Amino acid sequence: MKPAFKPAFGPANEDVAAYYDDVEVVSPKNKKSMIAFMNKIIQGFPTISVAEGLVDFTERRRVLTSGTSARPGPYRFSVTPYTREITECLSEYSNITEVALMKPTQWAATNIMMNHQLYCVEYGIGPMLYVTSDDDLAGEYMEKRWDPMIVAAGMQDYITPPVQKKANKATGDTRRAKSFKGTFIRSIGARSESKLSSFPVRIIHLDEIDKYPVALAGGGDSSEKAIRRSDSYENLRKIFHTSTPKKKATSRIGPLFRQGDMRYYHVPCPMCGHMQRLLWAQMIWDKTEDGKLDLQMDDHGHVTNNPVWHECANKECKYKMRDHEKIYFMRERGHGGKAEWRPSKKPDRPGMRSYHGNGMEGFRSWINIVIQWDNVEGDPILLQDFVNDVLGEEYEDKIDKPDEHYLASRAETDWNRGDVNERIKTLTMGVDVQGDRLECALLGWRDWKESWPVEYFVFPGNPNDPNDDCWNLLDEVIRQDFVKPSKEVLKIQVCLIDAPFENASVMNFCERFPYYANGWRGVYPAFG
Ligand SMILES: [Zn+2]
């Protein structure tokens, strides 16, 4: 049994996060009492009113360290002007409750979240949930980025030390949860189903969402599950979705971007003042005879020419906008420049904004980007990387008959556990009944000879008891829809459960499903 937890409200010194560490698996029983408990805490909170905006706070408090940033020192928005407006949406006084950011790699998106997290620690805003693609990354994030950020800001005293736990209890989880001012932040992986649905939260940061599993083991979607946790906060909540997009067919960030008001960063031409987006189509460079970037270097390998430019979209002007002018034309309106985010539609729901950033705006030099482009040379993998990581756009597969090289690379990079590959035609499941758990192997079949492992579920419980929750969890998976990238829905065609052990429970469970005399379909006990 979980030890009793005595909540202290207001400026509590209790380790709130530790309470949740004791709840490993959320059963319907303890889930109810936990939600009731959290709702009590929420009502106990004073109404928080914070006058300081997140931008001012960040420049006052955030310090980038040489170990985690290429530009150490106090945080300055002049380095990444395009992050200012997005950051401001997360201020307490802003009425924006949901932001979706689709962006290339190295665009400072994680820093936006970190700034917000530091702000929440300063003002005791929470509970806060940070979700990333997997559990290891969630731990690494807290250890390698979050802890150093707190230290660099000199805010260690804000964090409540973890309470002494039972000696035999693993303490790994306390690394991922930090208590401060009576509330907490927790960092989790997108597959941690029980943790995704275990407690109400006010601030949700969903990072790299295009790397989340297509569907959770027990059904449902990681982002959706996390967002439902914030329903009790309604207008007080802040949801921040961000990702570098992947394939268009399966992207989460792409559809979210289109649900928002679709903002693009517009910059003025230094010559004619025409406002425009930096577009890949407008990038032009001097080429050698074989069509590659004409890069001239001295004996020391230093580049001596300036071969890349962005042609002004004004046909009368065609000014060559250069990389080194970026620090001028990227400056935002009200901060020494004219650049600004412009919405291109009304958002689908109130309080939502969405932003699309691309690599021409970010830290990378344009020469560097063109060199990466030259290396693509028609290779579909490298092309997808370029479209996703540099342009920040979803990639559409246009290949009908992929060659073997392409398939092999795909198998390594694209085969995530839980994904239902397009080529799978049928799903089957085999269940092994153990004394304290059910172990279930979900297989996808291309034809009846070739099978692919899709997912492996373990449901702890007492299979001896036909009413035990492990049977309900199995029931849910059997009835679940599995969605292929093309949106085709598959269900488990046949499920065989080994019966010699716990025979009565198995027979009882199979009774829940219809019996098909002629079809290779249904849920059956298996003997032998
Ligand atoms: Zn111009």
UniProtKB/TrEMBL annotation:
<feature type="domain" description="Terminase large subunit GpA endonuclease">
    <location>
        <begin position="361"/>
        <end position="512"/>
    </location>
</feature>
<dbReference type="GO" id="GO:0004519">
    <property type="term" value="F:endonuclease activity"/>
</dbReference>
<dbReference type="InterPro" id="IPR027417">
    <property type="entry name" value="P-loop_NTPase"/>
</dbReference>
<dbReference type="InterPro" id="IPR046454">
    <property type="entry name" value="GpA_endonuclease"/>
</dbReference>
<feature type="domain" description="Phage terminase large subunit GpA ATPase">
    <location>
        <begin position="69"/>
        <end position="328"/>
    </location>
</feature>
<protein>
    <submittedName>
        <fullName>Uncharacterized protein</fullName>
    </submittedName>
</protein>
<dbReference type="GO" id="GO:0016887">
    <property type="term" value="F:ATP hydrolysis activity"/>
</dbReference>
<dbReference type="Pfam" id="PF05876">
    <property type="entry name" value="GpA_ATPase"/>
</dbReference>
<dbReference type="InterPro" id="IPR046453">
    <property type="entry name" value="GpA_ATPase"/>
</dbReference>
<dbReference type="Pfam" id="PF20454">
    <property type="entry name" value="GpA_nuclease"/>
</dbReference>
